[in-house]
Design brief:
Layout lengths: L2 H12 L9 E2 L6 H16 L3 E4 L5 E6 L7 E3 L10 E2 L4 H21 L7 E3 L33
Parallel strand pairs: 4-6
Antiparallel strand pairs: 1-5, 2-3, 3-6
């Protein structure tokens, strides 16, 4: 994992909801600050070549197709909202670290001149992803422009 990149992304996402207390933030779900963090993540993933999708309950997915739509799906991630006055690693670290891990695999394969193997990767960013109904395919979630995920828009 590219540690400086991971650290820089944690600094960026930690600006949304920062309280002024060292390492603390307040980024409750469906707030303006949460929406800004979601928009930031959508933009970051789009710039890195991921297809950004949002499902009907507001889960954000950065999908990287590597072997076609019928390949197995790997989900990694967490949530961007925080507990009231939670620490900057509350949820966001799982999202950013998951993205950094996928990027590390991509860089390793690129350096070796190899194409990614069979599979797809998606980076979910909300708690509801743990409560998806049986048969729910987050990679098939509805696509929505990143600029519309703000001010508490929960899709």
């Amino acid at each position: 994992v590219d540690r400086p990149w991971l650290d820089a992304m944690m600094e960026e996402v930690s600006a949304f909801g920062a309280t002024g207390e060292p390492g603390a933030l307040n980024r409750m779900a469906a707030t303006t600050e949460h929406g800004k963090a979601r928009d930031w993540l959508c933009s970051l993933m789009e710039r890195r070549g991921y297809e950004v999708r949002v499902d009907p309950v507001g889960n954000v997915f950065g999908v990287l197709e590597t072997a076609g739509p019928d390949a197995p799906l790997v989900l990694v991630g967490s949530h961007l909202d925080s507990q009231p006055n939670g620490g900057r690693f509350d949820g966001a670290y799982g999202v950013v670290a998951a993205l950094a891990a996928i990027e590390a695999v991509r860089a390793h394969l690129d350096a070796r001149g190899e194409a990614p193997g069979e599979g797809r990767a998606a980076t979910p960013t909300h708690r509801q992803q743990h409560h998806a109904p049986p048969g729910h395919d987050p990679a098939g979630a509805h696509r929505r422009h990143a600029g519309r995920h703000h001010h508490g828009d929960r899709a």
